[in-house]
Amino acid sequence: MRSLELRDAFTPAELLPASSEQARIPFGPVGSRHMARAARTLRLVEEKVSFEELRVGRRALLDFMNEVDDETCLNHVVGYRTLIRSNTWPNVSQPDLDAEGFLVHFERSALAYVNSAFRAFQWLRHPETSDLRNVHREILASEALRGQYGKSSPDGLDQRLERCMDELIEYVEDEEQLVVLGSLPLPFRSAESALVHDFHALRRSHPVPPSVDDLIEGSAWQYVRRHASWRLDSLASIYKGLDGHQPDDGQQRDRDQALAARRAELILSLPPRGEELADFLLALNFLNLALEPAFSFKSGIGVLHRLVFLAAEEFGSTPSERQLVLDRNHLFNNH
Amino acid sequence: MKILTGKRAAGGKAEGRPVVVLHPSQLDDVTVGDILITTQTDIAYVPAMHRASAVVTETGGRFCHAAVWARENNKPTLLQVAGITEAVGGIDQVWVDADAETITLGSTTP
Fold first, then answer.
1. Is B65 a catalytic residue?
2. Which of A182, A195, A240 sits opposite B63 (nearest CB)?
3. pTM of the shown model
4. What residues contact residue A273 under an 8 Å CB cut-off, 6+ apart?
């Protein structure tokens, strides 16, 4: 009964009308439905973050994040990973969830994670307005939901990537071709490359780190959202770290064109199943490389989650697994 | 001299001072031309990765962040070099041959 309850809670969300899902990305002779979906997910998540930023106030968010102590920020990723690994999460296999269904679920979990982060922010700013235990419950549920599609889940992004690659490699000659099929085509970039590419664009308009007012009112805000967790010292650190670095857009374009040509050729040689796998591989890679670093646990969104975890450390007990599952499912169905 | 092996993420050769980074607070230790040695990379490591002449990690698969970044930036990078963060203790020069998938540890030319 319990396992049925867990599975039934993850019934696939209603799919969008076909017209909005058939956006084509022009690489190869055939469009990429899954990749279009993944790109849409990143756009929706960032739009959600942007909406919440305006709702709570950019200045309030900036002020708050810049008061978080340096040690907490420096140790954030390690600390969050420790939290994930030292707790048991109710991750379940979802064998009936196909590629498209997975992407829909992933999108919902990513959006719910953003929602919960900003509810955490409201409590962090005004702890008198609600009970920490309730906020903690939501943040636990949010992490449980995110983790269902995360690295340690039997059906998370990493496992799906591995299974996709294990199957796709049967259709290609070697790993090198697999890498070609999975490499992100411009304008899509890994978070690491986007950090540098966007920095050069930022530096053209702001040769030195922008003032707080410039940041809040101008185009530089997008940079501090995506790459600096809303922290001025992170932004300053990027300026310092990339001082003297020159853009190499020409090389990247050349590389991308060569990759696109090879990819198109490979896609043509694949049967329909191989083509779908290649599309799914690209989508999963894009989510892993671009969305996760910018808007998952490593980001400012994750910092807000962790601050609640740290505040709740004084609790000796946490919700039961059953309660955690119920809370997680509630978030999934009501984000 | 000791030679360790790994998996190539992006090819090329580089030599330099090995700098082990196990925490973001150590990133500023990496200067231009150094060899960045770590267990796994993180987005915060990006400026240091650009300063380094090569990157060597203990973990990571073909689509890990370090591998993708390495291919995008043509930076010699080796993954899955077991024990490298400890092995370079006391070593002042290493040679990375990502095409041969080796890293040679020592203080004289091999």
1. yes
2. A182
3. 0.88
4. A171
